[in-house]
Design brief:
By secondary structure, the protein is an alpha/beta fold. It folds into two domains: 28-167, Nitrogenase molybdenum iron protein domain (Rossmann fold); 180-331, Rossmann fold (3-Layer(aba) Sandwich), CATH 3.40.50. The protein is 42% helix and 12% strand. The strands form four sheets. The protein has a four-stranded parallel beta sheet, with helices on both faces. The chain has a four-stranded parallel beta sheet with strand order 9-7-11-12. Strands 1-2 form a two-stranded antiparallel ribbon. Helix 2 packs across helix 7 and helix 8 packs parallel to helix 13.
Length: 342
């Protein structure tokens, strides 16, 4: 107990040390900024956040869309891993050169390292209760996130916009996303129910890991004019057995991006032999995660791709090829060069 008290005092001192005057500070706002996070807790800042530690990659993506990246002083460790890194490196030399600290991710947070960055706001998953409690005990404002629908994504971007003084940009982004989805819906709405293919969504962890009617995968398939074969299961992540998959006999298979296994591997796999989607060659894989992150405003691009596989007669390949580039240019202020989406 005594050690914990000393640690708390030491960390609190770090926070106080960051509260003195410094060069180039933003003038205080007329009044406090108050938003509600996904725990239902009020988060209040006296002025827009200018030292933000963001431990969620999808939320970091939102901060770059808002044009609030200069306020970011810490990121999730997974930003530096895998294919997403090249996109952030193209937008921010600090991430290209690995100069922004990464004090944690979705399963581990070094509270001491976070506090050492003197944040005025930490963005973190709401399930990380122990880390949240430790930060809030030290007086660090925490915006906790939990996303299960596109409306949640809209709520998150609006809250981040308010907390960073970018509310107008947040509304622009929401309007653009709604417009993209409206355009897709106009193409899909005319498809008769009988033409909506029975679709199996496959996560990268296993051929047998899919999603039920809870979460963004269900919304993805529905908006794309496809029918989720696992619609009757009220779970976001479901592991089924091979016999159940055979009973589903999907007409279309949509794979989450998987570096180890692609559509050709599935089609050639004897375990999939005889299934309708394999027989007709309707097995498709979403591009790398940065382009099709369902938990960001890039959601419409994934919907457009799935819609083109579900209803190929209503979407042109050239239009699809342009959509990825246009999306990146629009969402990230033109900071991502043409040709990076491949």
């Amino acid at each position: 107990m005594a050690l914990r008290r000393l640690t708390t005092i030491a960390l609190a001192c770090l926070l106080v040390a960051g509260c003195g005057p410094s060069r180039g500070r933003v003038p205080a706002a007329a009044g406090p900024i108050v938003v509600e996070d996904f725990r239902g807790k009020k988060v209040a800042l006296q002025r827009p956040g200018r030292r933000v530690v963001c431990l969620i990659e999808s939320a970091l993506s939102g901060l770059y869309m808002l044009g609030a990246e200069d306020a970011v002083v810490g990121v999730s460790t997974n930003v530096y891993d895998g294919p997403t890194r090249r996109y952030y490196a193209a937008m921010d030399p600090r991430l290209r050169d690995r100069k922004l600290p990464s004090p944690g991710n979705w399963d581990f947070v070094s509270v001491e390292s976070v506090v050492a960055l003197r944040p005025d706001l930490v963005v973190i998953w709401s399930e990380q209760g122990e880390s949240i409690a430790a930060l809030e005990e030290l007086g660090v404002p925490v915006f906790a996130v939990f996303l299960r629908s596109l409306d949640d994504v809209f709520r998150e971007i609006r809250a981040l916009g308010a907390l960073t003084g970018k509310s107008a940009r947040a509304e622009e982004l929401v309007a653009w996303t709604r417009g993209e989805l409206g355009d897709i819906e106009r193409h899909v709405a005319v498809a008769p129910a009988a033409e909506r293919p029975r679709t199996y969504f496959m996560w990268a962890q296993s051929d047998l890991e899919t999603s039920g009617n809870v979460g963004l995968v269900e919304e993805l398939l529905t908006r794309a004019g496809a029918l989720n074969v696992c619609h009757d299961v009220a779970q976001e992540h479901v592991v089924i057995d091979r016999e159940r998959l055979r009973a589903f006999d999907p007409e279309l298979v949509v794979m989450w991006f998987n570096e180890r296994r692609g559509p050709k591997d599935v089609i050639a796999d004897p375990a999939w032999r005889g299934m309708r989607a394999v027989h007709t060659g309707r097995v498709h894989e979403l591009p790398e995660v940065f382009l099709c992150d369902l938990w960001t405003l890039k959601f419409p691009y994934a919907v457009r791709l799935v819609a083109s596989w579900a209803h190929p007669d209503r979407f042109g390949e050239k239009d699809l090829a342009r959509c990825g580039e246009r999306m990146l240019q629009t969402l990230y202020h033109g900071k991502l060069q043409r040709g990076i989406a491949r």
